[in-house]
Amino acid sequence: MMGERVRKLTGYAIGFASMFVLWHLAAVYVVDSVLFPPPGRVLVKAWELARDGVLGRQIAISMQRILIGFAGGSAIGIPVGLAIGSFGSVRRVLEPYTEFFRFIPATAMITVAVIWFGIGEGSKIFLIIYTTVFVVIVNTAAGVGAVAPNKIRAAQSLGASRGQIFLYVALPATVPYILTGMRAAMGNSFITIIAAELIAANAGLGKMIWDARLFMLVDQIFVALVMLGLLGFLTDRLFRWAIYAFAGRYSPVT
Amino acid sequence: MAGGGARVALVRLSGVSKVFRSLQGKEYVALRDLDLEIEAGEFFCLLGTSGCGKTTVLNLVAGFERPSTGRIEIGGRAIEGPGADRGVVFQGDDSLYSWLSALANIEFGMRMRGVERGERRARARHYLELVGLDGQDSKHPPELSGGMKQRIQIARVLANEPEILLMDEPFGALDAQTRSVMQQELLKIWRATRKTVLFITHDIDEAIVLATRIGVMQAGPGSRLKGVVPVELEVAERDRTADRFIAVYRRVHAMIREELAVAMRRSA
After folding, report:
1. What is the CB-side half-sphere exposure of residue B66 using CA atoms within 13 A?
2. pTM for the complete prediction?
3. pLDDT tens digits, residue range A35-64?
């Protein structure tokens, strides 16, 4: 158990270290241009921006938009997905919506969102909700559909009512699917928020990249890029951990 | 074995037919005019070759399926759907709740029916011990072996105190050794509780080890009961090498062989 953990962490450490080494080699010896800063310079820049509070503020703004939109999208998507998965009539009515909108990417909605909700928080949160909700719906509904029929039948024969079967059987059996959908939605949220902030925003990591571009502050662009990778990696780890923590018990098929 | 006195039919199927319709609209007659009576307190094994509709019979009694024609009753009342008076043990382990502990799985039915917490804990523990799982109460199904999972299923159903146990090839997925152990354990539990059991199997040995009566099914489609063989064996004779066991085996085997021949001719 412990050895497994050490091996995993060592692997990660080597992987990340090699990434920075390669980056350094490429920047210093291969490209050798101010347009491709080595990690050391980016780190110094990151430190400066962090010290001034700029970096923390931009990260906080972007993450806040993601978290609010993501929470809202999940809060809408989970019940709707459960309803679609549970009732054929609901599925038939709502499936056209999900099947239609999930092919219109959130990035295509940016201009409309800004026209409707302005350049501030409203449009960003709308876009994150939009990019979250359909993935969560589709995964949740699939999860309900994947509940083993014998789990339902057993509950019926043990005297459970329809409501109880939903609450105590279908819902917990669907948890791993819901989490998987949310994990995918979190990935989408990162893509969407940066695209939205690049195109129209007054703050955030995407705006930081855009502003840096105007003044050719390549170091600053790289700081934002590294931060995105780091934040995405960490939130995804968090989800993976949650899925593993639940999956032992909530796995639909074992 | 089935004590003296008047025999009472607990479950009665009369003139039951079941027709399935495929997506293409093709009809398949699984059962035609089936009559079957299961007496209170007996261990009834329904034996048949694959595709004879024995699982369909169980699903009808459980209320998972509705008969196309005919009538199915338990204790004189018509069966309208699944109910807590008929506990089902499934072949696979996918009916267990993997997010609940072994004990919570056993408590599930009582929890749904509003049995007070202390009482249902105590009763669940009693049945956990009865099926030989003491000390495994906090384990989750994915952590348990195939045999242990079937024990949980049996305890879960017994703890709910149904009038009849419906068992659909519950040991079919187990290895031969575990299977044999489980048969003996089930027999012990049955002797202790005298619950009525409807047990589906295609294994002649298993039927003779367990049953007080064996109902042999005709080959499908459109099957009904070919005949019923009483198994009047003492405990010591429920052994594959006992002379009287072999005598019953010959008789049942002859019936099964006839049906296999019919099935072969039909598929030829």
Report:
1. 5
2. 0.83
3. 899 999 999 999 999 999 999 999 999 999
